[in-house]
Every structure is written in C-alpha cells, then in structure tokens.
Amino acid sequence: MIYYKYLITTSDGLFNGKADKKEIDRVNDILNEFNSNLEEGDLSINVTSIEKTQLKLSISSSLNSESDIEREIVSLLQALGINPEYSIEKEEVSVKEFAKSISDGTKQGFINDPDDICQKYTVGDKRYCLRQNDFNEEMIGDDLDSSIVFQSIEEEKKRIFSPSAPKEFICHPVHYVIASDNEDLRIEMRRQLLSALYKANRLKSRRVSILSLNPLQNVFSANYKESGTIANRLYNKGEGGTVIISGTKAEEENDDCFTPSDNGELEAIMFNANMHRDNVLTVIELDDNEESLNEIKELSDKMDFVILKENLVYGQGAKEYLQLLAKKDGINNIESLLDKVVEGEGYHYSNLSSLYKTWKEERKKSAFPAYSSFMSNLNIENAKKPKGNAYKELQGLIGLENAKRVIDEAIAYFNMESLMAKRNLKISSPSRHMVFYGAPGTAKTTVARLFAQIMKENGVLSKGELVEVGRKDLVGKYVGWTAMQVERVFKIAEGSVLFIDEAYSLVDGRDKLYGQEAINTIVQMMENMRENTIVIFAGYEKEMKEFINQNPGLRSRIPFHVHFPDYSDSELLEILKLVASKNNYSLTEGAECKARDIFKTASLSKDFGNGRFVRNLFEKATMKKALRLSSSLDDFISDTELLTLREEDFEMPEEYSNERKTRVIGFTA
C-alpha cells in the first residue's frame, strides 16, 4: 500500500470561503458513492480539507500505475463539478502522515469513521497508527551522492543499474543485510542503497518502516503467526515499500545490536518477511559478527540476502573520513588527528569513528587541563562493565564459573589500564597472556574464541580473531626454520588471540632442540607484541603446569591461569538439553533420566570427552530415533513425535560401557 497527499488548486475557487454543512454533506455523498464503486482494498480516496481554491485528498493505493490513480481522481473531480482548469500536486507520505490527515478530515466533517479507513488501508486504527513507539518511518531521498564511499554499496549499485536489469518493477530478487558496528554508518549505507533501488524502479514506494528489535519484545505474542503483530500489519500493508529490521539497542544499555531472541520477535518478523518476500523489501541492520549473520541465515532459508559490510580504507581515504567527522563538529585544526593514521594500515569506518572520539576527548582535556580528572571520571563506570554479544554469550555458557570470573577480572583490568593511560598516569604495561587448564571438551577453545571477540568489542584488541596453532605450526623441520615459523604465526595473530593447543608438545619427541627454539622465540614475541596480541596456552592440567613451571620466561609472562574442570552430570544434562533445543528437539522426562545415568557412568572414564561426548550422544540418539520411527513412515507421524527424543533413543556408547567383554587368552574348563 502506498500513501499520497493530493492538492487540487482551481483558478476560480471552489466555494466562497469554507464549505458549509450542506456542501460538506454533498461532497460526502458523492465520495461515498464513488468509493463504493472502487475495488475494495485497491484504492481509497478521502477528502480531508476544502479551502477556497484548494481541495486536499488523502489516498491509499495498491495500484501498480500512478496513472490509474490520477484517472480516478479526474473522475471524482468531474463528479464534484470542479472546474477542469486546475493543477494537481502530489506527495507520497508515511502511514502516520496519512492517518493524521484522516484525523484532520474527521474534524472538518468529511470523514465519519476514521478507524474503519485505517483498519482497511493501513496497519491499524487511527490511534494505533499514531503511536510513536510501535515503529518508525522515513521516506527515501533522491540524493545518491555521499562523501562516504562504501565498496560493497558501490558493487551493489553496479548490479542494480546493470544494463540487463528490468526497467520496471517485477519482484525483489534479493534482500539485504547491512553489517556494521557503527549505527550512523548503517544508516548511511541504508540511505545510499534504498536511494539507488528507488531510482532503478526496484522499489515502488519511498516509504520505509523501521522495526527495532527491543520495543517489539512487549508487542509480539507467543504465537508469532498471529495477525495482530506489528510485523504482520506492516508487511501486509507494505507492498512496494521497505521494512528495516534494526537490532540497535539504546546506547545507555552498553549493548551491541542484534542478539538471539528469547521471545520469538525475530522469528515473527522473518516469517512475515518470507511470506511477502516478492513485494516487500527487507533490510536487516546488525553488528558485524558471525553469530548474528548465522541466526539470520537459519531463519530465512527461503530468502536470498546480499550482505553489505564496511570496507577497509587506507591512507588518504581514512584521513578524508576523519576530516568529514571533524567538519561536522566545526573543528578545523586536526593535524594531530591525521597523524594517527598509519600509512599502509587498513581501517574500518567504525574504527576511525572510535579514533576520532578518543582524539576529541584528548583535545578537550588538553584545552582544559584543570578539569581533566573530572572528564576522565565520566568513563570509569563504562570501563568497569564489559559489553558486547560475545560477553553475553560467554555468560550464557553452562558452568565454567571459574573461567567467567577470571575473564571478568582480566577485562576489568585491561579496561582500567586503558583508562589510566588516558589520564596520563604512568604505569608499566602488564602482560595479558593466559593459560587454560582442562581436559578435552571442557570448552577451552569456545571460551578462547569468545574472549578474543570480547577483547575486540571492548577495545583491547583491534581484530579479535582466534588463531589456533599446534606443534606442527611452530616447529620447523630444519635448523633456522622454527624461529621464522613462530614469527610468521605471531604476525598473522597480530591484533588477535593466539591459541597454542597442547603447548607442552613443543618439548616432546625427538626434536626437543627445535621445540626449545620455538619456546624461546614465543617468549620473545610475547614481549615484543604484548600491546596488541594475547597468547593463550592450553592443554591438560598436569602436563601444562609442568610445562609452565619448567620455563621461567613463560611463567613470569602469564598472569592469568584459568581452570576448566570436567562438567558435572547435571551440567552435562543441561548442555544436552541446550544442544537439543538449538536443533528444535525436545527430550521426554525418561530420556533426561537415561541421559543423566549415562553421563554419571561415562564421566568416570579417563578419556571422557565432556562437551564432545554430549554432542556425539545427541547425534547418535537422533539416528536411533530415525531407526525407531522408520517402520512407521507410511503412517501419520506428528511433527511433535518427529522432534522428540525418548528414553529408548539413548544408549551408552560401547567404548564407555562397564560391561565390555574382556578377551580371554588360553583354555577354559
């Protein structure tokens, strides 16, 4: 549905002054008869004001051609007996502007039942349309130019304006995900994208409806298919337009955008997006992280998305963006800011925005040194609070209380260190490296990956990736190779976390000399790159403690020691239920009891795999369930039964069974 305001201006005037009641009644009778002859749902024409030489109309239409609308308007003007010498001005408006004009028409007596019009032709009744907290709207502008050039947007524009592209609207071949850690940049990317699509006739309407994930938590019902939801209404009446799904949350929450939904709001939106994918464009705006992207992929299997991200800019491009930010704030002397750009190093616009904010704070403190301590105090609380999706995911992991506590301490320490540096307090830069003790399957690698992301989200590391290596990646085959390999690995891990698994293997085997060379080089690189690289050594507790203790150089550089104990049977059961839930399965009470018994027995084994064991047990249970139901495939099986694991689907893996047969050598009586 597209909404318009039409202004009809005549040369000789409509009435002598305002329309009186008799004239209003005549107009209403003609308009009611006229609308009754239109196809209901396709077009609604409403008179909202008559003033001397001007007639104002509010129109909602799902007609493909604007000429069809104007043909109907000409017919209405003829029926009203208006002089054919008139001019027509039109403007596409938002649904809320349309609803307000209907309200204005009601006050002047031209509309008797505004709620009926809004319910038929918009997203709800008049009062509902005007509630500001349900959704936001904007209109697409004409300007395609921008001082910010995004490579991904420019590449998409080439596809949009391709000579082979259809000249008229057919359907939406793709939808879009805009991924950036900076909300202002997401909005700018959206503006450039939608302006291009509208200019290329890939959109019929300028209207953009914006749904924020947070406010919807109190709107959606448990049944996400229910027609009363905001998403359902917007998509049903949004043909030809755009719906923006924004995961942005309020800044004061210190939260990143887009987190997995607990209340079904995202599922509800994507259900409607799938239903209307040919006629309503969906653009999803979120932080640039894999978790959010994967969630969208899982929920939108019938839709094709083009992912648009920030590109890296170098040298002059980075400086031009910083100049743009300073210009908006009216700051001219920025040489000290531009000097912070390192030639040859790539920057995301988000990183440059953070760099600019930090420089502004430094500039302010430099200008007012007497107040510098007061200014710094404003940042103390934020320095104490870790933020980001990765931190929330870490806190949501089952068990691992010791790991969470130590990592909280590390984050708080790193943030406070940064704050003290901003105050120019002279401190020695501490070592940030860690050692993870624990058996396989206790989530060491998972925690290391999240820790790396947390370090990026909290501004400690620039990249925040996890680079996993083992002995073969660090120890060379020939003399002189090992040091070069270690240096190469550290170069790759710069700005990230280097995860060395089973580190004690460096001094095992025949090549102990090469292994010692690797350790010596690691110690040197840990010191040289301590500002922007964190090393985590991981492995079994006993072996790792022996390894660390016999290397004083390592021991003195690792302040954080994190113990990963084996999971209890209760924690293993919770992990199983979580794995099942993520795969849309549920467990019966009997299945839970059986699984807990299996965990109690299997965990006594020396080679117990903890979380890996849970994953394997779940996969085997789904296979067993498939075999159990295979004989009934010809009969009706409910969806619930297909997605339910029962007691008989779980059995102890043979390698963990206490009843394994022992091979007997020799003769028996």
Protein architecture, described:
The protein is an alpha/beta fold. 45% of the residues lie in helices and 15% in strands. The chain has 27 helices and 19 strands. The protein has a six-stranded mixed β-sheet, with helices on both faces. Strands 14-15-16-13-17 form a five-stranded parallel β-sheet. Helix 8 (230-236) packs parallel to helix 9 (265-275), helix 20 (481-492) packs parallel to helix 21 and helix 24 (569-582) packs across helix 25. The protein is globular and about 100 Å long. The model is unreliable at 215-228, 248-263, 376-383 and 659-669 (pLDDT under 50).
CA-atom Rg in angstroms: 33 Å
Strand order of the largest sheet: 5-7-8-9-6-10
Distance between the termini: 90 Å
State the helical fraction. Answer: 40-55%
Q: Count helical runs.
A: 27
Identify low-pLDDT runs: 215-228, 248-263, 376-383, 659-669
Short précis:
Helix content is 45%, strand content 15%.
Describe the secondary-structure layout:
Layout: E1 2-10, H1 21-36, E2 43-51, E3 54-61, H2 66-80, E4 86-93, H3 95-107, H4 114-121, H5 126-130, E5 136-139, H6 151-160, E6 175-179, H7 183-199, E7 207-212, H8 230-236, E8 242-246, H9 265-275, E9 281-286, H10 290-299, E10 305-309, E11 313-314, H11 315-328, H12 335-338, E12 346-347, H13 349-367, H14 372-377, H15 380-384, H16 389-396, H17 401-422, E13 434-438, H18 444-457, E14 466-469, H19 471-474, H20 481-492, E15 497-501, H21 512-528, E16 534-539, H22 541-549, H23 552-555, E17 560-564, H24 569-582, E18 586-587, H25 589-602, H26 611-630, H27 639-642, E19 644-645
Parallel strand pairs: 6-9, 6-10, 7-8, 8-9, 13-16, 13-17, 14-15, 15-16, 18-19
Antiparallel strand pairs: 1-3, 1-4, 2-3, 5-7, 11-12
Helix pairs in contact: 6-7, 8-9, 11-13, 16-18, 20-21, 24-25, 24-26
